[in-house]
User: Which sequence fits this backbone?
């Protein structure tokens, strides 16, 4: 079921690439339309899965990735519509397409551990997925900022310079994405910690729950992520860390998020496997 | 009705002559009104910029109109006609439309792709339209030209990239700061290019322009010109710490902004970018200043090489823009031909309808016995038959590929159906044909 959104994302990605290269407004509008259509189809797929298993489908990594892709597509669309700036599409789309391949190829089985059957789970996972989607945007914006910065600094005003938004625009978009992501990350982590404590007391025999601590790489890296983004938010407010430093920080933060989301989630985590 | 164009431009006339024939400095609307009252033309538009004065006309008689336009130019500007006659150019029909499309696209401009011309073409048309000097032909032609201009702008890079040093500096500032509203500018040294740059920055809405000069006089003058504020030379360092954009253009032989100056200025601003535009020769800013992370330093050579690159990129786009113009011209010509077919089509319809009515009239005695709704249906059916018969020939006539073929077809249709007044036939034959028709059709 995740194949159709993948195909539509790929079509939108192609249109964004053509728009970036040729800068024809009608191709840009086509790209946006395709992406909206892809996101709608994806909404439908996720809705169907929700009906099927009676909760939002992210209790296995593959489906969580699908939900993440969906949230990222929506966040990007929001950014595009509010800033009227389509140039970033060409950088976001490869990530959407690449990640969506995973649920399209291995749908996974939605198995709901009874421990997870709680409204806290829903808040925890959806907050974190939304936070990661924001960080993904911020990361791409940050890298774009660095590229644009170098082009202007080196006086190499070529292909990318003419197509990328201004440094200021990139910085403002980056700052917003980081701030929104940080809020949801904080919420997600706080709910996670609170809920673990509750569940532990309720199910003293569950080995997974008892093993949940900072020793679990996934939890550790999640807190590390929180640390990095807290610093990014704080440094911008108090030390004026905007521009290039903020851009690098958000790229670094997102690298950690990706690390946590893919390899650690699949191979390394010890207790946080649901 | 044909399109006709007469004028001078930077391609045909020297600047002093263009100045003498310029309409734009005076009231354009009054000019087009004067032209409309003086000439026999049905529609007129006056397009006038510093590089061209062009009269666009819809007329039935090109030769006569041409003489009238020459007389108008000579009288209106009080210029003897012999001085400008050798510099005039004229175009008729599709060539005139082609010229207008190229003008609107910026292809005929002195600096290819410059952005103002499309607005000037629009102003020229609106000035004429407001005074009811335009009609269907010029309205359609100018609307088409606006669309061509828009297409070229959006589909090619013809108008992209700054092609003067001061615009290049502003374009860079916008790539760094986005919108320039709220930004602070420091101008060091009051020269011509720094004045131009300051004015461009002002028009982009910068919050503050501070000007300093070794001697206070020129700074005061530039400040009043740009709505800025002059400060003493000694306060330069403090002003630099507050500025986002610094423009330097002094005649100093040694750098006046050293690395230490820049470091002191950027220390306080943390990581916000500082854009320094050094347009002085020799340079005012020590090149090592660009090693400071958040400083973007551009000197006159950097800006000039941007301008050169942009010019090269624009000329690489000319072929694509010309192709768009050519494509639109083909469509425009097809529209004009289809318009020229209209008299024939109308005559054909009238002819067929006359026959239909005559036949119904002839059968009147027999139809009279029928109930009214049956008679209405017969009327309706015969009308539909005529319409259906004419549908395809009408479309074909409108879609003929060129004027010659169209003339042949029109002639053939006129003859086959004995139409009264084809587009080029004298109206005098009308009564005769009608008379024959009636004699044949009446019972």
Assistant:
């Amino acid at each position: 079921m995740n194949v159709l959104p993948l195909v539509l994302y790929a079509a939108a990605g192609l249109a964004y690439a053509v728009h970036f290269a040729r800068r024809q407004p009608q191709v840009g509008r086509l790209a946006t339309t395709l992406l909206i259509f892809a996101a709608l189809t994806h909404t439908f797929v996720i809705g169907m899965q929700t009906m099927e298993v009676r909760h939002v489908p992210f209790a296995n990594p593959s489906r969580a990735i699908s939900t993440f892709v969906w949230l990222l597509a929506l966040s990007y669309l929001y950014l595009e519509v509010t800033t009227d700036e389509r140039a970033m599409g060409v950088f976001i789309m490869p990530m959407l397409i690449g990640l969506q391949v995973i649920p399209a190829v291995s749908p996974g089985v939605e198995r709901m551990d009874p421990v997870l059957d709680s409204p806290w789970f829903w808040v925890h996972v959806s907050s974190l997925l939304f936070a990661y989607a924001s960080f993904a945007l911020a990361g791409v914006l940050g890298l774009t900022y660095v590229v644009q910065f170098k082009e202007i600094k080196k006086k190499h005003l070529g292909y990318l310079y003419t197509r990328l938004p201004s440094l200021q625009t990139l910085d403002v978009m980056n700052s917003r994405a980081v701030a929104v992501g940080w809020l949801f990350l904080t919420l997600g982590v706080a709910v996670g910690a609170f809920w673990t404590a509750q569940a532990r007391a309720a199910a003293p025999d569950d080995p997974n729950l008892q093993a949940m601590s900072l020793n679990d790489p996934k939890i550790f890296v999640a807190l590390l992520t929180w640390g990095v983004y807290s610093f990014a938010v704080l440094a911008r407010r108090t030390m004026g860390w905007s521009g290039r430093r903020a851009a690098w920080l958000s790229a670094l933060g997102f690298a950690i998020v990706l690390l946590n989301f893919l390899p650690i989630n699949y191979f390394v985590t010890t207790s946080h496997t649901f | 009705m044909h399109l006709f164009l007469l004028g001078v431009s930077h391609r045909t006339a020297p600047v002093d002559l263009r100045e003498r024939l310029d309409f734009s400095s005076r009231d354009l609307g009054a000019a087009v009104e004067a032209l409309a009252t003086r000439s026999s033309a049905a529609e007129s538009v006056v397009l006038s910029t510093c590089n061209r004065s062009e009269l666009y006309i819809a007329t039935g008689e090109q030769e006569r109109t041409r003489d009238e336009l020459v007389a108008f130019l000579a009288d209106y500007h009080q210029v003897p006609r012999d001085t400008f006659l050798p510099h005039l150019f004229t175009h008729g029909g599709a060539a005139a439309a082609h010229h207008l499309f190229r003008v609107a696209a910026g292809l005929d401009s002195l600096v290819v792709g410059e952005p103002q011309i499309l607005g000037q073409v629009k102003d020229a048309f609106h000035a004429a339209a407001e005074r009811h000097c335009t009609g269907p032909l010029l309205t359609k032609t100018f609307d088409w030209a606006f669309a061509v201009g828009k297409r070229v702008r959006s589909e090619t890079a013809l108008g992209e990239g700054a092609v003067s040093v001061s615009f290049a500096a502003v374009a860079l500032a916008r790539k760094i700061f986005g919108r320039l509203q709220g930004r602070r500018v420091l101008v060091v040294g009051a020269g011509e290019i720094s004045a131009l740059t300051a004015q461009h920055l002002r028009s982009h809405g910068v919050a503050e322009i501070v000007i300093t000069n070794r001697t206070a006089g020129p700074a005061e003058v530039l400040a009043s010109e740009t709505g800025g504020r002059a400060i003493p030379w000694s306060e330069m360092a403090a002003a630099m710490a507050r500025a986002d954009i610094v423009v330097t253009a002094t005649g100093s032989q040694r750098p006046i902004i050293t690395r230490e100056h820049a470091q002191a200025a950027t220390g306080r601003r943390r990581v916000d970018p500082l854009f320094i535009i050094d347009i002085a020769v020799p340079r005012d800013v020590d090149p090592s200043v660009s090693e400071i992370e958040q400083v973007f330093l551009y000197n006159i050579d950097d800006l000039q090489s941007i301008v050169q690159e942009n010019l090269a990129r624009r000329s690489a786009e000319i072929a694509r823009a010309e192709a768009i113009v050519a494509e639109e011209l083909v469509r425009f010509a097809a529209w004009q031909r289809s318009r020229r077919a209209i008299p024939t089509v109308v005559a054909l319809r009238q002819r067929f309808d006359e026959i239909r009515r005559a036949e119904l009239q002839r059968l009147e005695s027999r139809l009279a016995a029928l109930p009214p709704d049956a008679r209405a249906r017969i009327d309706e059916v015969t009308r539909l038959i005529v319409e259906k018969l004419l549908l395809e020939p009408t479309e074909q006539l409108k879609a003929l590929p060129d004027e010659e073929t169209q003339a042949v077809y029109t002639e053939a249709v006129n003859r086959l159906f004995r139409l009264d007044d084809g587009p080029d036939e004298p109206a005098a034959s009308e009564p005769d044909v009608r008379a024959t028709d009636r004699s044949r059709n009446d019972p």
About this structure: Residues 422-443 of chain B have pLDDT under 50 and may be disordered.
